[in-house]
Amino acid sequence: MPARYGGFETAVEEIGRRLAEAGHEVTVYCRGERHPEREYLGMRLVHLPAVKKKVAETLSHTGLSVLHAAGRRITRRGPDVALVFNAANAPLLPVLRTLRIPVATHVDGLEWKRTKWSGSGRRYYRTAESLAVRWSDALIADARGIQDYYTERFGADSVFIAYGAPILARPDIGKLAEAGYAPGEYHLVVARFEPENHVHLAVEGYRRSGAVKPLVVVGSAPYADAYTTQVKELAGDDPRIRFLGGVWDQDLLDALYAGALTYLHGHSVGGTNPSLLRAMGAGACVVAYDVNFNREVLGEEAGRFFGDVESLAYQVEAAEADPGAAADRGEAARKRAAEHYVWDDVAKEYEKLCEDLAARRRTRRTVRPKK
């Protein structure tokens, strides 16, 4: 906190601040850069270290967080309910259960499909999914496709709670001018540089297109040097393709979404993707990778889809040929986000879930596979 990178950060900030406003005591375990105060938007922040290795960073930080929460529980100041984000943390759930802390696990997407994980990492994530089913009092799925996966693979029930979308009525377009861009005069990619986010496909498809307006690529990845090199090799010396790296100025990022002629969204293995919702809330014309998660969020009218280099190139050229139609799709996306992805509604669903957990109306019996 404050959230700058990743869907979980944004979700915790948006949900946590609303729970705090409703009168609940909210503690958030943080890693990385410290906020100067111990409280932020009504939430109590606890910063703990983590091992700076890809395979250990998440689990090491969560382990310390669980021990901290356990210590508070022993002194009768601990949590009534724990919300754990990422099924990879499932091996630590028995500690919470031993202390009789009800726990809901947000299982996220199909992490084992990410190419950054080797055979052992992939096996770990598959195992962690089954442990989350076994030891959670509730599973949270942010997409119907994820909910279906847990039903089909484990026979497990889950609670569907989507993310919210920030609706940008007046983005600071002046930020675009400072960065050297004008509304409607560029295409945009915002993604971590990971193969399953298909940044390589966006870059290659754009390069093969006859597009005149530049492609602006925002993003990086701390553990993906080889993939980053591959993406930049695909761009070659094409002067139309511009890599900005990570953009931490949130006003500038909002302006980039709002001013793009198209937003090219290649994410394929997550659930409801926050970057997609942010683009929709900004009124961007979305061209998304054709998987069930993205179709679920966009519907049939609020976006266009691609599956290969040729179809992406076609969509980019079509948007430049008819920018009015692209703008209309952007408005349809904004309307859909405002109707279906509302943070106030999301927070109320989390509040109800926490109340049910604290009152023991939800227990492992409501999650575990039926015999």
Gross CATH architecture of the largest domain: 3-Layer(aba) Sandwich
Strand content: 5-15%
What is the overall silhouette?
globular
Average pLDDT taken over every residue: 88
Oligomer: single chain
- Taken together, the total number of domains comes to 2
Summarize the structure.
The chain is an alpha/beta fold.
Tell me what the structure shows.
This protein is an alpha/beta fold. The protein has 2 domains: 182 residues, Glycogen Phosphorylase B (Rossmann fold); 167 residues, Glycogen Phosphorylase B (Rossmann fold). It is built from 14 helices and 13 strands. The strands form 3 sheets. A 6-stranded parallel beta sheet has the order 10-9-8-11-12-13, with helices on both faces. One of its GO terms (molecular function) is glycosyltransferase activity. Keywords: Glycosyltransferase, Transferase. This is Glycosyltransferase involved in cell wall biosynthesis. It holds the Pfam family Glyco_trans_4_4.
Features:
globular; six-stranded parallel β-sheet; 45% helix; four-stranded parallel β-sheet; alpha/beta; Rossmann fold; single chain; 371 residues; glycosyltransferase activity; 2 domains
Secondary structure layout:
Layout lengths: L6 H15 L5 E4 L8 E2 L2 E5 L9 H18 L7 E4 L7 H6 L4 E4 L12 H17 L2 E4 L2 H11 L4 E2 L13 H6 L7 E4 L8 H10 L6 E4 L6 H11 L5 E5 L4 H10 L2 E4 L8 H8 L4 E4 L2 H7 L4 E4 L2 H13 L1 H18 L2 H16 L13
Parallel strand pairs: 1-3, 4-5, 5-6, 6-7, 8-9, 8-11, 9-10, 11-12, 12-13
Antiparallel strand pairs: 2-3
Protein name: Glycosyltransferase involved in cell wall biosynthesis
GO molecular function: glycosyltransferase activity
Keywords: Glycosyltransferase, Transferase
